[in-house]
Design a protein that fits this description.
heterotrimer; A mainly alpha; B mainly alpha; C alpha/beta; A: mainly alpha; 9 helices; 2 strands; 2% strand; disordered N terminus; C: alpha/beta; 24% strand; amino-acid transport (chain B); transmembrane transporter activity (chain B); membrane (chain B)
């Protein structure tokens, strides 16, 4: 039954989105006065390649940030479950700090506190582009959450697994790598994918700091085309549709996985 | 308050260079307080709106009219799968441009200001999560309990108010807490449409006094304390509503 | 024809005629006729899946019938214009899974329906609820929450909750099936006491000894039909139908 409703949802929601978009563009067209040299929609079509170029950067930032967040998050998660308090406490602190702060605040912190260039030991200077800094800024909250997901997953493995591994003379390290982690990975995949989707949806915030991604380019395009108020609705709607087309299939797939894993356990 | 701490922070600035200007400069102090106050107001309004939308949406999802159910489903999918910052800009600039202006006795102001649009946009965004949260809470109420109420002659409305709602609310509290905390954090997005909440106030201070690291620390502390307070309030609510012996 | 207007207490208080019920393709009830007089205690026995629970649930309208007529005090239960409230104050039901409201105390569970549904005076209801709880041996448990009680205690609260509506007929749907063996008896004692006071009772049960002891008449159902009915001594000692004989030889 749930399967049925979900499948219905899968094709109806995008259909409705498309309908809403079309309706809004029609509304935008209706607003036009005849004196306008080019319609808002025509302007949008001209600028689409430019916006798509920006979107490519959103994609690159999201992938890099996710990779960085996954590696650091898993490490941090392991540190969180360490029996050694000197390792555990700082890991908990970092996790807590980045989980409970807003994305925007973390982004600001990285943008303003990390220097725009670093000097290598040899004396060479390397410029750090803003989009790289933004990528790190987006990775940090995801890192903290992956750390927490890992900790939660490890905690959810029954203690009998640890005990039987110990009785088989596994070390703590071996137990983690060969026994515990393989059981965690499966249940970590759906939340991991959810965080990727959320991360991607946060990347347009980089526009606030002047990164030329999709949102920045959309605003620049509207400006360049004459900054007419009737641009706003079609341009922003196009941008939302762009992200929707990318993220929606992903969240459908995540939900399927979640359901399958829930049924399997 | 400021009189007591000002000498300490002035000396701190002179000796170490750490410039916590809001703690000795009355002007910045007021900016900080106002930013915190607006932020709290904003968060409360956003949460309230998102809860109302969540309850209405969860109710509408059970509607017999197909079109209503589709609309709710589409609403959820659209707002959960597009960037919140673009949603906010779309509301503020896109819809803000076509909302009527109000005559303020000589000059004109938009009917909904930036604060209002931030509440609407982020509230609608958060509501899309609350609909699902409330729905799963309602689904967790055993059908047999509802049936017992039916057998005792309760009307559908009485069943909803006295049986389904109190139980569903308890079932969805943990998920609701998460979403409320996440919304409180998302409220900082209002910065981009210049709502004078804490992030905006402090960014004003750091561009005047060039004390970014210090203000950053304040900002982090503010949000961590805020999240801790919300978490504390919600867990005490959860404890108060806990049913003795239930779910153990 | 008997209707709500000309019904008198010497006519059947519950009357089922040619009741059919299908769930999709699956026909669960295939023409049931059954009559219960005021003050009678009726037990319905039979193998699992023979439609006993469906049958009892049609009496207060929880399960709508596909065809046929169900009358309580002359009133057609499945009339779409029926005042459901009037029916439900007349017919109480106790479920296998107790189905108490987990967020209300024992006393609140018992008081809720009379106060909210019948709009009765709260103090009167409270007094009645307390005496009903005392009757089912639950003094001192008024302020406990359902999850703090044993299954047998919860089931007795459920009985008191139904009785507080002052019904004319009580339905019991396998009320001991989910209980631990040691708490079954306390529930049966409560039902027996009720029957002794003249309450009209319809029970679906697997407790054959209890059915034999308490009932005025026993109905044996199999595959959606009533195979035979009669006084308990006859059904249990000299069953006529081979299906009844086979069933009883398995369970007794």
């Amino acid at each position: 039954m749930t399967d049925f409703t979900l499948n219905r949802l899968t094709w109806r929601a995008p259909l409705l989105t498309a309908a809403i978009c079309v309706a809004s563009t029609v509304a935008a067209l209706a607003q036009q006065t005849t004196e306008d040299p080019v319609s808002a929609l025509g302007t949008l079509v001209i600028w689409i390649p430019f916006i798509l170029k920006g979107f490519w950067l959103n994609f690159v930032m999201s992938v890099l940030a996710m990779a960085f967040a996954t590696v650091t998050g898993v490490l941090l998660g392991f540190m969180q479950i360490s029996p050694n308090a000197v390792i555990r406490m700082p890991a908990k602190l970092v996790t807590h700090l980045f989980r409970n702060s807003p994305w925007l605040v973390i982004l600001f912190a990285i943008m303003f506190l990390v220097p725009f260039q670093i000097t290598l030991p040899g004396g060479d200077k390397i410029l750090i582009p803003d989009w790289v800094k933004a990528t790190v800024g987006f990775a940090l909250p995801v890192m903290a959450n992956i750390s927490e997901i890992l900790r939660g997953a490890v905690m959810s493995i029954p203690s009998g697994q640890w005990e039987s591994a110990e009785s088989l003379a596994f070390s703590r390290r071996q137990t983690l790598i060969y026994i515990i982690l393989p059981q965690c990975v499966r249940r970590m995949i759906p939340p991991w994918m959810n965080w990727y989707a959320l991360l991607t949806l946060m990347t347009p915030m980089a526009a606030i700091l002047g990164v030329n991604e999709a949102l920045g380019n959309t605003q620049a395009a509207m400006e360049a085309a004459g900054a007419r108020p009737e641009f706003l609705i079609p341009f922003y709607l196009f941008l939302m549709t762009l992200f929707f087309i990318f993220i929606y299939p992903l969240s459908i797939y995540t939900r399927r996985l979640e359901r399958r894993f829930a049924a399997g356990s | 308050m400021l009189d007591i701490i000002a000498p300490f922070f002035e000396r701190l600035y002179e000796t170490t260079g750490l410039n916590f200007s809001p703690f000795y400069d009355p002007y910045d102090w007021n900016r900080l307080l106002r930013g915190m106050w607006v932020s709290v107001e904003l968060i409360i309004a956003i949460i309230a709106l998102s809860l109302v939308i969540g309850v209405i949406g969860a109710g509408a999802q059970t509607s017999r009219i197909r079109a209503v159910r589709w609309l709710v489903a589409a609403y959820i999918e659209i707002f959960r799968n597009t960037p919140p910052i673009v949603q906010l800009l779309f509301f503020y600039f896109g819809l803000g441009a076509i909302t009527p202006q109000v005559d303020m006795g000589g000059w004109y102001e938009p009917m909904i200001g930036s604060f209002g649009w931030a509440v609407i946009a982020i509230g609608i965004f958060g509501g899309s999560y609350n609909v699902e949260i409330f729905r799963s809470g309602v689904e967790a109420v055993p059908g047999t309990t509802v049936e017992a109420a039916e057998a005792l002659g309760f009307t559908n409305f009485q069943i909803f108010v006295y049986v389904t709602l109190p139980l569903a609310f308890r079932f969805c509290l943990p998920a609701l807490t998460n979403n409320i905390i996440s919304l409180a954090k998302t409220s900082s997005l209002a910065y981009v449409i210049a709502v004078p909440e804490i992030t905006y106030s402090l960014s004003g201070i750091w561009s005047d006094s060039v004390n970014v690291p210090e203000m950053m620390v304040l900002l982090f502390v503010y949000y961590i304390v805020l999240v801790a307070i919300i978490a504390r309030l919600m867990s005490s609510l959860e404890r108060r509503l806990a049913l003795p012996g239930y779910g153990q | 024809m008997i209707t709500a207007d000309n019904w008198t207490p010497d006519q059947p208080i519950v009357a089922l005629h040619d009741v059919h019920k299908s769930f999709g393709e699956n026909e669960v009830l295939k023409g049931i006729d059954l009559e219960v007089m005021k003050g009678e205690v009726i037990c319905i026995i039979g193998p699992s899946g023979s439609g006993k629970s469906t049958l009892i649930r049609t009496i207060n309208g929880l399960t709508p019938v596909t065809r046929g007529s169900v009358k309580v005090e002359g009133q057609e239960v499945h009339d779409p214009d029926l005042d459901k409230l009037a029916l439900r104050r007349k017919v109480g039901i106790v479920f296998q899974q107790y189905n108490l409201f987990p967020h209300k105390t024992v006393l609140q569970n018992v008081m809720m329906a009379p106060v909210l549904v019948l709009r009765e005076n709260k103090d009167e209801v409270r007094e009645r609820a307390r005496s009903l709880l005392a009757k089912v041996q639950l003094n001192g448990k008024e302020e406990a929450y359902p999850a703090e009680l044993s299954g047998g205690q919860q089931q007795r609260v459920a009985i008191a909750r139904s009785l507080c509506m002052r019904p004319d007929v009580m339905l019991f749907d396998e009320v001991t099936a989910a209980l631990d063996p040691e708490t079954v008896k306390e529930v049966l004692v409560a039902i027996k006491q009720l029957a002794g006071e003249g309450m009209t009772c319809v029970l679906v049960t697997h407790e054959m000894g209890f059915a034999r002891e308490i009932s005025d008449r026993v109905y044996f159902t199999d595959a959606g039909r009533i195979v035979e009915s009669g006084p308990p001594a006859q059904i249990f000692e000299t069953p006529k139908d081979p299906r009844t004989q086979e069933f009883l030889s398995k369970v007794l």
